[in-house]
Specification:
Blueprint: H1 7-15, E1 18-23, H2 26-29, H3 43-46, H4 49-52, H5 55-60, H6 62-78, H7 83-91, E2 97-102, H8 108-112, E3 117-119, E4 122-129, E5 135-136, E6 157-161, H9 170-182, E7 185-189, H10 201-207, E8 211-216, H11 221-228, E9 236-240, H12 243-251
Parallel strand pairs: 1-2, 1-7, 2-3, 7-8, 8-9
Antiparallel strand pairs: 4-5, 4-6
Helix pairs in contact: 7-12, 9-10
Bound molecules: ligand BJW.
C-alpha cells in the first residue's frame, strides 16, 4: 500500500533535532522473524507465553525454555536487517540525535548500523544465570547439559531477556524515559502497544510535547486511548503500512 506522508509531518521531521524511535516485533517481520501477536503466525498464537516466558516456566521446564530460545536465536542469526532497520540507521546521517528504544531481542538494529540502541527486553544472544544474573559468555558454557550451568555459581543459564513479571533493566529503562522526554519526534514502529511499561512511552512523549508518529499496518490502541483522555491528539500521526515501506519514505 502506498502511504503518502502529510506535508506538515515532513516539515516537522526536517526540523527535528532529536528523534527517538520505539520499535517492536513488527519492524523485524519483513526480515522473516515472527511477531508475537499476529493472528496466524504470531509466537503467542502458537505457543503459550506462560510456558515459555516467565520465571515459573523456566523453573518447571528449563530444558524446554532453553531449547525454544535456542531455535529463536538461530532464526535471528540467519535473518538480515530489512529496509526499515536500514532507514533508521541512515537517519543518523541527517538528524543530530537518533535513539532507538527497542523491545526486540534480535540485534537487527545494531546489525543495520544504528549506533544508539536501548534494548528494553534484553537480547537473545546474551545469557545470564538464573539464580544471580551473572552475565555469561554463551561460548564458554558447556553444552553437555541443557541448559548449561553458570561457571561462577552453578545455577542454570537462561537467555538474558525480560520475561513477564520481571523488571526491565533499570538503567536502560531510565535512559529510554530520558530519550522520550527530550525528543522532538517519537516514531512508534511495529508494536501492538499493549505490553507495559513500553506501551506507556508514547503517552509520556505526547505529554512532554513531542510529535508522535505511529507506523503500523494495523490500528493500535494508542490513538483510541489518547481520544479517551479527552485530548485532541493534534501531534499524533497514524501512518498505516509496513515499516519497510514507510520508513525509507520518511528518510528520503
Ligand atoms: C508491523 C509489520 C510491519 C506487523 N511493519 N508493523 C500494567 C498494566 C497491565 C499489565 C502490566 C502492567 N505492568 C506490567 C504488566 C505486566 C506485563 C504486561 O504488560 N502485560 C500485558 C500483556 C498486559 N508486563 C511485564 O510483565 C513487564 N514487567 C514489568 O512491568 O515489571 C514490573 C511489574 C512486574 C510484575 C507486576 C507488575 C509490574 C515485562 C514485559 C516483558 C515482555 N516480554 C516479551 C518477551 C521478551 C523475550 C522474548 O522475546 O521471548 O517481550 S513478551 C513480547 O511482547 C516481547 C515483546 O517485546 C513484547 C511486545 O510485543 P510487540 O513487539 O509489540 O509485538 P506484537 O506481536 O505484540 O505486535 C507486533 C505489531 O507489529 C503489531 O501491531 C502488527 O500490526 C505490527 N506489524 N508487521 C510494521 N511489516
Amino acid at each position: 500500500m502506498e502511504q503518502s506522508i502529510p506535508h506538515e509531518l515532513c516539515q516537522v521531521l526536517r526540523q527535528a533535532r532529536r528523534i527517538t524511535v520505539l520499535t517492536g516485533a513488527g519492524i523485524s517481520a519483513e526480515s522473516g522473524i515472527p511477531t508475537f501477536r499476529d493472528a496466524t503466525s504470531g509466537l503467542w498464537t502458537r505457543f503459550n507465553p506462560e510456558e515459555l516466558a516467565t520465571r515459573e516456566a523456566f523453573e518447571r521446564n528449563p530444558r524446554r525454555v532453553w531449547e525454544w530460545y535456542t531455535e529463536r536465536r538461530q532464526q535471528a542469526a540467519t535473518a538480515q536487517p530489512n529496509a526499515g532497520h536500514r532507514a533508521l540507521a541512515a537517519m543518523e546521517h541527517y538528524v543530530e540525535e537518533v535513539i532507538i528504544i527497542t523491545q526486540n531481542v534480535d540485534g537487527l538494529h545494531q546489525r543495520a548500523g544504528s549506533s544508539r540502541v536501548l534494548e528494553l527486553h534484553g537480547n537473545l544472544f546474551r545469557t545470564k544465570c538464573f539464580a544471580q544474573d551473572h552475565p555469561t559468555d554463551p561460548d564458554i558454557a558447556s553444552e553437555e547439559e541443557i541448559p548449561p550451568r553458570c561457571p561462577r555459581c552453578g545455577s542454570y543459564l537462561r537467555p538474558d531477556v525480560v520475561w513477564f513479571g520481571e523488571l526491565l533493566p533499570e538503567r536502560t529503562y531510565y535512559q529510554a524515559l530520558q530519550a522520550v522526554l527530550s525528543c522532538d519526534v517519537l516514531l512508534v514502529v511495529g508494536t501492538s502497544g499493549i505490553v507495559e511499561p513500553a506501551a506507556s512511552l508514547p503517552h509520556t512523549a505526547l505529554r512532554a510535547g513531542a510529535t508522535v508518529v505511529v507506523i503500523n499496518p494495523e490500528a493500535t490502541p494508542l490513538l483510541q486511548e489518547e481520544s479517551n483522555y479527552g485530548l485532541k491528539p493534534s501531534r499524533l500521526y497514524d501512518l498505516r503500512g509496513k515499516a519497510g515501506e514507510i520508513l525509507p519514505a520518511l528518510v528520503s
